[in-house]
Amino acid sequence: MLDGCRVPVVLAPMAGGPSTPELCAGVSEAGGLGFLAAGYLTAADLAARIDATRRLTDRPFGVNVFVPGSPGDAAAVAAYARRLEPEATRLGVGVGQARVDDDDWTATLDLLAGDPVPVVSFTFGCPAPEDVARLRDAGSEVWVTVTSAAEARLAQGSGADALVVQGAEAGGHRGGFTDADDATGLLALLQLVRVVSSLPMIAAGAIMTGAALAGVLAAGARAGALGTAFLRCPEAGTVDLHRQALARGDERSTRLTRAFTGRLARGLENRFLLEHSAHAPSAYPEVHFLTAPLRAAARAAGDAEAVNLWAGQAHPLGTELPAGEVVARVAAEARAAVEAVARLLV
């Protein structure tokens, strides 16, 4: 599918609002590969977004799907819920009800097999080989997000067409098969994955400039997946509070945390993250549902210290340009970077 793209830029899917049909179409129209995020959506909602995207572009695009996981430790989830009660009281809401939800998994796969899109990517695990084969038989390429060489081997064995290789620098959720604490940087990971797999690699992790894109292409990636770089685009569904935090342009540190969702994700440091990260269990999506009312109330109150502000490590380099202009700028910078490096190697 990447062979049909004029620019080796992929829109990293961002569930929970930022990934809109307009953003997806904007990237695809500019020569990259746009993505919709199926996370937190019913199959019916996803179908509507696919239809909306098709009305905006006839260029290829993809859909990203969360692979359901196993329930977390119920006692640890209950203890964390009790810890959050003072936060809920301060915000005037109750702590949410912890539950396990598979994001309409079966219906979503049925939709994508019956009404295929060019690419289906998976996060939080590798689908069963029969599910991969079903989507491929329908005409879709299947990509799997990996965060280690071991995961890359498993994904290749499942029949995947390509690997989204996510480094530790990436904003938002760690997309690997497990919620492990260890995290390898992108350039190191690309080298390690290339040794064990011949599949095309899409590099993800703090790629904000053309120079960074050129770097991962030189390291063996077929394309770069950019997420944070598009969060402030007018087409993105990023909430105002999140936009404002990113627009300050400071070098506020990012950190991996389970505090908001129960699964490691990288976001801007704020009070909630710093106070609760050490106590949050590995329990996704239970913790996501526990904190959902708190996050909604904090957004309504304009309290940026109590919401998740996902961002990659190079977030200060973001802009408010339209998606197409971001793609064009990154492509031009990458070409210049490649030419500069070539001169050094003469």
From TrEMBL:
Any one biological process term the GO annotation gives: response to toxic substance
Family that this chain belongs to: Belongs to the nitronate monooxygenase family. NMO class I subfamily.
One Pfam short name: NMO
Domain of life (superkingdom): Bacteria
Organism field: Cellulomonas fimi
Keywords: Detoxification, Flavoprotein, FMN, Monooxygenase, Oxidoreductase
Cofactor(s) needed: FMN
Xref: CDD domains: NPD_like
Reaction catalysis annotation: 3 propionate 3-nitronate + 3 O2 + H2O = 3 3-oxopropanoate + 2 nitrate + nitrite + H2O2 + 3 H(+)
Protein name, entry field: Propionate 3-nitronate monooxygenase
GO molecular function: nitronate monooxygenase activity
